[in-house]
Specification:
7 helices, three-stranded antiparallel beta sheet, alpha+beta
Amino acid sequence: MLRWLPSNLIYVKPYILDICIVSARSVAETRDNHYHNPPDYLVLQPEDTQKRTKNLQQTNTNGDKWQGNNSQFQAAQQIVKSWGNESKYYQPTREYQKLLRQLINLFPYRLDTNFAKIDRIVHPEIESFKEKVLEKDIKGISISEWAKLLGSKNTEKTKLTLQERLFITDINPDDIIL
């Protein structure tokens, strides 16, 4: 049974709405191509860590964001330009990654912790899947409309909709805490 708690907490047993199967390689390539824009943003592959013990073998790709000043940026742009016409295009090769590491050693960058968020890479198949799921109807309301409703500050409207559509009633949290 679903319950509406005054603290705006709704609990229910989760269930799978849909499934999306895409190539992990296409996701990684889309991510890398989306972000990589030297010298402003660098995508770096891990160095060869195969000789390390299993727990120290790195497999995560990093995104690094520029943190220098304007004159440093102009100097970095000249370095990237010296790499040739293909310099702006991401390449996972050892040689290209070495060039990117030179930039990191010469100029200030910070590790970007938002780099791998799937919602930011604009992968065509994933975007299509998200649109399809957000349009799904749950009790007469699309998932995107539910998200807006549950994220709104209008608790009365939310409460009324939950009562009408899902038969969720008020309950005192103290009555259900074990």
